[in-house]
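Appendix C reproduces, verbatim, an entry submitted by the partner laboratory led by Prof. M.T., so that reviewers can inspect both the input and the predicted structure.
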Amino acid sequence: MTIDIEKLDKNLVPNGNTKRDDAVFRSVREAPFKIYGLDHPEEPGMFRRMPQAYSDRVGPGCTIMSGMTVGGRVRFCTDSPYLIMRAYTPSITPYTTGGTLTAMKGFDVYIKDEEGRERYWNSVRPPVSFEKGYESIVGLPGKLSDITLYFPHYNQLTDVELGLAQSAILTPGSEYSIQKPVVFFGSSITQGCCASRAGNVYSNYVGRLLDADTINLGYSGGAHGQQPIAEYIGTLDASAFVCDYDFNAKSAELLKNTHEPFFQTIRRARPELPILFLTKPVRKDPELSIRRNIIFDTVARAWAAGDHNVYFLDGLTFFDGDDWDMCTCDGTHPNDLGFKYMGEKIAAELRRILSRKP
């Protein structure tokens, strides 16, 4: 027997009545909305994190994953009492056993508080099943608010339209204090596989802690230190780069063969870019110490060559409290608690790095 839980608990119904006679819809590609974290988002077609000219050189998996919108955000200010979203998607990506429907296909609404810090307000939740898109609604404070809308991390989108009250004020959102983005590259952990919602992906949390723009190049199962990705990262005018692909390197040998060349490609293109290397936050790995040494060796060789803008952060320090066993959903992928700890330690290190005088 199939049980429809939404009939038993109305709070689990994802979208209420979206009809508003005074709603005016605009694409998020239009001013005064501003999109962050995606590649040339003003162009029509599917939103992408990396140009297809680069992802195609890696392979079809990278091209598909590049069309998933993790790290994408829209900022704006409004006093509308509601927000209606129309999300258009060319395909439906099944959600994984470690993810949630809200995280993989929904959007998070954050609003700045009186101290200027983004705080979670609500999630724009999709229905359990839909084709080519959906419409959903959330209430807003009804006073002028600085809003950030976080895109889902495992779904493709061709457009997003926001419906606001016709009489509402709509102005640009605030700019980031750190306007040059912090770029992240890594595995499904970087892509936020098991975060319960989009705002909890660790790169998004780091961005909030630093008030920094971010770009997330997390590729589930597909981050192997490929040269086209390094070449693309080298084209970005970033404030810092965080390299986190240890988990996807299938062996210590593969990691050793790719790690130094990946770094050197980026370094040749961006001689002054601060680069932070992470190791995997997993305790059960027979090659763990070997992998950590490979990554640290890349850093040590850079230091020996006079490059002191390269840094190392041991993933084993992320979950070093008494509750470390509560930080993943499967022994590998961090959950919200794990991402909180990761984000705090990465943000603290980046804050130290970015405060250094050149």
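Residues 46 and 158 are 4 Å apart (CA to CA). Additional entries are available on request from the coordinating office.
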